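Researcher: Quick one. three chains, 1007 residues in total.
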Amino acid sequence: MIPTRSIEPWIKEPLERFVAEAGARLTLIMTTAGQVLAQHGFTRAVDVMAAAALGAAIHSSTREIARAVGENEFKALNHQGIRHGIYLAEMHTPRGRLLALVVYGTESSVGLVQLFYEDLVRELREACPREERRKPVIASNFERELDESLASLFRR
Amino acid sequence: MTTELNPGMTFESFVVGPGNQLAVTAAQAVAERLGGAYSPLYIHGGGGVGKTHLLMAVGHVAAEAFPPRVVEYSTPSRLAEAFNAAASAGQSEAFRHLLADVDVLLIDDAHLFERRQGTNTELQRLTQDILVEGRNLVLAGHVPPGEIAGLDRELIAALSQGLVVEIEPTEYETRLAILQRRAEGRASGLDQTVLAAVAEFNISNARELIALLNRLIALEAVSENRLTPAAARALLEGEALILDGRRPVPSVGAAETQRDEFADFLSEVSVAVQQQIEGWETDVRDAIERWGREGFDTKRLEGLLTQSNPLPVEATIVEFERDVRQLRTLREAVAATDPARAGDPVFRDPDRVSEAHVLAESIVPAVELPPGPSSAWTFDSYIETAGNRAANQAVHEVVDSPVSAHNPLIIVGATGVGKTHLLHALGNGLSEHLAMPVACLSGQEFHALARRAVEENALDTFGSLFDRAGALLIDDVHVLVGHERSQEELYRIVGVLRGTSRQVAFTVCSPPAEIDGLTTQLRECMDGGLQVVLTSPDRELRRRLVERVLRDRAGEADPELLDYLADRPAESVRVVTGLAQRIVDSADGQGLPPSAALARQLIEGTIPKVERVSRGMRTSGVMVSLASGVKSREKMIWNWPDPGERLIEELS
Amino acid sequence: MSLVNFTTREITCKIVYYGPGRSGKTTNLQYIYGRVPENRRGRMVSLATQTDRTLFFDFLPLELGSISGFATRFQLYTVPGQVYYNATRKLVLQGADGVVFVADSQARQLDENVESLQNLQANLLDQVVDIRGLPMVLQYNKQDLPSDLILTPQELDDAINFRGVPSFPADALRGGGVFETLKGISEQLLRKLSEESPT
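Model:
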């Protein structure tokens, strides 16, 4: 059974449901800075790190292009390969903007992913704790926070 | 030996100031009166004060006088080279005569005469000749004759007997004048006040001063505002401090400096780009002009200017010049035989060198070629291991950059370590790279040829044998010990080759300095290059040699056998391969594959009773065959078996 | 990336500012942006997190105009410094013609500096680029901090300037040393121009 792990408990169940219904192989839920909050399907921390950094980078450069053409933002991005597809989308939660990076195979499709993604977003919004735990990020802590969330996802 | 005089360096373009007034006057006197006044004239001073400029100026006036005088501009190194080349070709007299025709001899960088004993003697003689005959000698150097290290007293006296004058470091007025003249020449809009600000910096070297000026001109070209003296000062403070040896503190604060930061950056980049781009472009254009003038087709060089990814420029120019030289040689040879055909366009097209070779060969009576490298020994068949890597690398460097890498290359090593193989591989590599024949022969062959030439009084033909060779490689030079005549001939030929920029390489059994019986001349001509040593084969090499033999002959190599043989020390490659061959022979003879056990028996002499295959013939280690007579196997065994043992063996 | 294109008569240089997190790479570019006249630069693109950490890269294109008939452009990039973002850092490093390594002069950041240099070497190796052949300069930033917190340029040279490349003390916030560094790397780059052979 491929694990679904989450740093914050409220993400875990909605994510598990999404994965099961959409047939996703890998999924990451992260902040726009690439800090991972939950993951499914990854077995190694290094892979998560790379995927998160790249996903966040893609998202930020897409936003930049959007801004250049006068769009506020793009909701989602989809890349279709031969064996896999990648779906990268943004969501607004009381916790702020989050990103979802989904990798799916031939047993799923972008349509399926999109469909159940809507559900995921709704569920996350509902499950999200209301208190604004926005602690200011202290300079020296930034990198440590990135690493720590990664570490806790793979802690046994 | 001649260098053309720089057309920009004349008396008219020389800025006179208090520091150089005397030198200029003296130089003019020499130039105009010729013969007599101040001979020799020796000008000394630091870098960039104008010594070369004055020398050239004298040359111009002399050359343009009526009747025009013969002017020669040279440096100590060029003189030495020319003299050595002539001397080794047995033509020192011709060299002296050449200089005897010169009316005005200009020698720059005279402080470089320091350690050249041979040429110094010549120089002294020259000075005397010149003075006696009323011709002119003008020298320039960083220090006065008395301070040149290594010159003997007589020569110092000879050089000082005319006028020795110093050019002092420039002062403000001279610097300003230089800047003004230069700025005019570049049609720049730089204000006088800016020039004055620059002249304030205590930079004695005119070249550096002009470099600073160039930067300012570039800066002005790209800024919107006019350059102010303050800005120029600020800008140059950094530069001047660096010239002064101190590092500038990064500028922080002042609004004016801030505004100029980017402009400053821009101007520096501009200058850097200019230097790089225009630098090589100029080189290429110069080469095109020069060879075009001589009638050669320069499209290969022109291509460099238009390609998007140009080939390494310098290398292309060097190759081009080499091809042109070949064409010239061929054309001259053809002209000597059949002048009409020498005009054939193929001799003017560097891209058709091979065609030119073919054509030349068909016209010119075949000139005998010297013996060349054997195709049996190439780099492909040379096994490189840690023990011979340095030597192999040096050899490859020579193939890649003949003459400029290591000339001469001396390979030192005992017999059988692979010197000959490496030398011939070098020859094959060079031959391919240069697309020219390469002379590669053993010391014995050389000696035989030389001796015959002496006997038949045909030394000229012997010498010309090596004319067409792109390089000279001699194996086992030490065999010439005791044959001084041959050594002399070798020395002469090497001299000619080195004088015409061609590669030379030797192999010897021990370092030349340790070989008794080598003439000093020959020993000397082996100096100045690189000596590499080939040692006895190391373990890895032994292993691979054996492996090669086994694979070639038996199709496979037993690792245990390889290790066993590799472990045995050996003095030479020959010994190793010989042993391997023997083992294979023995194995064949017994109808078995070669193995470690077999090898052990053979070498260590234990003869097992079981594996003896009866041939119906008693063998006692002595083999008899009709073809090769009697061979005793025992002669090649490492450890002699105990005869007592064997005796018992035979009787049982 | 090819430095010089002789057919189109263009010179393009990609200069990447590398170094540990928060050493001042982005600050360098911001200062340059502020000092370059508008007609000489393009828009500066900064892909950053909400807390102003470079997330992907900063990009500043400089138009230097026509020099010796060649349209000359410099493209300055910074990379994210945090170890975490190595994947994207590698992307930005691709095709770099020269590197400015911005080191944090604070004594307690020395390890980070060393790690980042090693990371640079490793990433270059991935691209089959030999760091020894890559034009590079070092900038020792934050020299404005109290002297008991920082190492001197000499000490930093001893500690991290393995290749003996030109090094420049700097205070990027106020601009000291920023253009000197840029000049330094330009010189190194252009010198390589004449030695470069095509691949």
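Residues 63 and 69 of chain B are 5 Å apart (CA to CA).
Researcher: Thanks, that's what I needed.
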